[in-house]
Amino acid sequence: MVKYMQKLKIGFIGIGVMGKSMADNLLKAGYEVMVYTRTKQKAESLLAKGAKWFDSAKALAQNVDVIISMVGYPQDVAEIYLGENGVIKNLKPQSIIIDMTTSSPRLAQEIYQEAQKYEIKSLDAPVSGGDVGAKNGTLAIMVGGDKEVYEEVLPIFEAMGKTICYFGKAGSGQYAKMSNQIAIASNMMGVCEAVAYAKKCGLNPQDLLDVISTGAAGSWSLSNLAPRMLKGDFAPGFFIKHFIKDMKIAIESADEMNLDLPGLKLAKSLYEKLAKEGYENNGTQALLKYYDAE
Q1: Rounded to two decimals, what is the model's pTM?
Q2: What is the tens place of the pLDDT at every residue in 21-75?
């Protein structure tokens, strides 16, 4: 594995709430990491630890073996990979691209097909686990693409995540992540409604969480985000605006399959109300604000 790490140079695009910790874990694992992000200042802590800076995705691509991206929206992903000055047209053949953004399954398939024209290997590998999972290197990573490519870069995934699963052909990682977001959406409504109900009843909400989190109601959101709600901590582990983006993608994908998802649509409508009220840059746990305002 040491030989493997010395061989590959990894380029990382997108040093945000999640991406910075993910890139940091790659550095800790011994990889040579090079970064590009729109705001260089966001990468300063990584540069201090040995990462190298490039001022464009094109320049980065010309100097690495693997590109990992963790950005905000599908349009950002498309620009990074498919643009004239983007990654695919500037990587050397047999290089590997790994988009870890939660994005469109169709876009993942388009990127895969375009990459093949240039003899570039492509994986879609969105993650779950939020800022805590990114920091601790315990992310769940859902992968789509060619299995042999997945196996080739598995040590890279292991530096960032704990639960890593290959789901199938290109786009499968994104489909898996959409399933994850669908489960979270309705669960977050349940968590917030339980907290709001307990407060209205005059119960001690923390005592309630301590009890119900050990039973059938238990969930990651209940254990990790509900305590933040009670402290009034709405800082983003995952932005509301990005969750709305994910829910839109999931609904569009479900519509293509003639599948109705009423719980997801309701959750999206509640989050959109919060976004209109100026909370789009809060974490998803800020959904409690909707119920507190009732």
Answers
A1: 0.91
A2: 999 999 999 999 999 987 888 899 999 999 999 999 999 999 999 999 999 899 9
Residues with Cβ < 8 Å from 75, sequence gap 6 or more?
none
* Alpha-carbon torsion, ordered 249, 251, 256, 257, to 10 deg: 120
CA–CA gap between residue 259 and residue 240 (Å, rounded) = 24
Exactly one of 20, 135, 177, 245 is catalytic; name it. 177
265 has catalytic annotation: no
Pairing mode, strands 32-36 and 9-13: parallel
Residue 1 has pLDDT above 70, yes or no: no
